[in-house]
Amino acid sequence: MLLLLGLVGGGVYAVTNPEPKLKVPSAPGDLSANIVTFVSPDDRVGVASAVAALKISPPQRVEVERAVAERRQRVGWIVFTDSMDPDGDVIAVEASGLTQQIVLTKSWTPVAVAVADGSPINVTGVRDGISGGITVGFATSAGMMPIRVLQPGEHIEVVP
């Protein structure tokens, strides 16, 4: 009997307190035509999803969410792939002082970014997997967009 009450109580809790589903780009239709797909500041689940993906401390997450709500900062997604053969190439993505290292693969790698208006996003080659350079591609709603091959230490600037 107690087990039944527990199951029913758990079911009621799940229905009344559903976990919001995270919104992470997974198909071209989820992206804009630009390299950075910004999340509307009015999209609470979208903003929370992007902020949750940032590699920052909980107090910093609160500050970023506040800055987005106050329209002092924007959050968005850049989707990376290895534009040639996935061989362990590594890049660093720097936006608004936050640097995140990414290992490139053939599958989509969505990376959340938080930027102030007019601030660039830097993509820097960190490590060439085998040889032949660091091959980076961006996903947009129009498809894949490869960029020039980077060498370790080289960077490109993305202006959102």
How would the blueprint of this fold be written?
Blueprint: H1 2-16, E1 37-38, H2 44-53, H3 58-69, E2 74-82, E3 90-95, E4 98-103, E5 109-115, E6 121-127, E7 136-140, E8 143-146, E9 155-158
Antiparallel strand pairs: 1-2, 2-5, 2-7, 3-4, 3-6, 6-9, 7-8
Helix pairs in contact: 2-3
What is the count of structural domains?
1
The strand count comes to 9
Write down the secondary-structure element order. Answer: HEHHEEEEEEEE
**Principal-axes shape call:** globular
Which segments are poorly predicted (pLDDT under 50) over 5 or more consecutive residues?
1-18
- Main beta sheet, described? 5 strands, antiparallel
What fraction of residues sit in β-strands?
Answer: 25-35%
Class from secondary-structure proportions = alpha+beta
**CA radius of gyration:** 19 Å
N-C termini distance: 59 Å
3D structure, described in words:
The protein is an alpha+beta fold. The chain has one domain. Helix content is 23%, strand content 31%. The chain is built from three helices and nine strands, in the order H-E-H-H-E-E-E-E-E-E-E-E. It has helices at residues 2-16, 44-53, 58-69; strands spanning 37-38, 74-82, 90-95, 98-103, 109-115, 121-127, 136-140, 143-146, 155-158. The strands form two sheets. Strands 1, 2, 5, 7 and 8 form a five-stranded antiparallel beta sheet that branches. A four-stranded antiparallel beta sheet has the order 4-3-6-9, with no helix packed on it. A hairpin with a 2-residue loop joins strand 7 (136-140) and strand 8. Helix 2 runs antiparallel to helix 3 (58-69). It is globular. The chain starts with a helix and ends with a strand.
